[in-house]
Amino acid sequence: MGKPYSRINWSEGEVRFLKEFNSPWSIQVFLDSIEYNPAYECRSPRWIISKKSAHCFEGALFAAAALDFLGYRPRIVDMRAFNDDDHVIAVFTENGNWGAVAKSNFTSLRFREPVYRSLRELIMSYFDFYFNIKGEKSLRSYSLPLDLTVYNSRNWATTDEDLEYIGDKIESLHHFPVISDKMIKRLNIASDSIIKAGLLGSKEEGLFKPD
Fold it and tell me: Which of 3, 81, 115, 172 is the one with CA 20 to 30 A from 19?
């Protein structure tokens, strides 16, 4: 395990909890085991540890904090969607390859193995599986990674403060398009079986209601 990049003031109990993680995948297993939070709020990783509940943004922040504990940089990436929720993931690299840890109400928008040679390649691995409840493929663009160590002075991982300011920041970053207008017009609807698999175990009140 490497040295953390953030100086996070974890409690002794939280340190014991975080020591249970030995890889990015183990963080994903934890996120998959907890409830999806449908509330419009953004709580810190400390709150997630206590309440065992998170939505996608909270899950990405928690994953970034846990990755930091393992010695990875705590970085998140925003994926912007049309007629659907945006999605935020925590990203990491191993031997120059990109992977991701994420919380999602859709089974298909979570973990990615660190086998992608670029950030764009990683993002595109989500494209065919990023759809709304109508099956419309909705991913349109992505941001560069935001390194959360810039918020160390605000104790982003342990504060009781709402972290929507981080959401505002990542939303304001330049986003790179993944598809052209011409391509959008030719997109197919996801198959019924893929939609069913994506929605397996989803929490109804947390699903985006498309037009």
Answer: 115
The predicted model scores a pTM of 0.96
Query: Of 55, 27, 56, 68, which is closest to residue 152 (Cα–Cα)?
Result: 68
Asked if 87 and 104 count as a contact pair (C-beta separation under 8 A), the reply is: yes
**C-alpha 11 chain-centroid distance:** 24
Alpha helices in the chain (DSSP H): 12-18, 24-33, 45-51, 56-69, 119-124, 164-172, 181-185, 192-198
| Residue with the two structure tokens 């705590």 | 74
pLDDT single digits (tens) 134-166: 999 999 999 999 999 999 999 999 999 999 999
How far is CA 208 from each of CA 61, 158, 200, 204, 211, rounded to the nearest angstrom? 21, 29, 15, 9, 10
Q: Which residue type does 133 have? A: I
| Cα 43 from Cα 3, distance rounded (Å) | 25
| Tokens at 69, concatenated | 């504990």
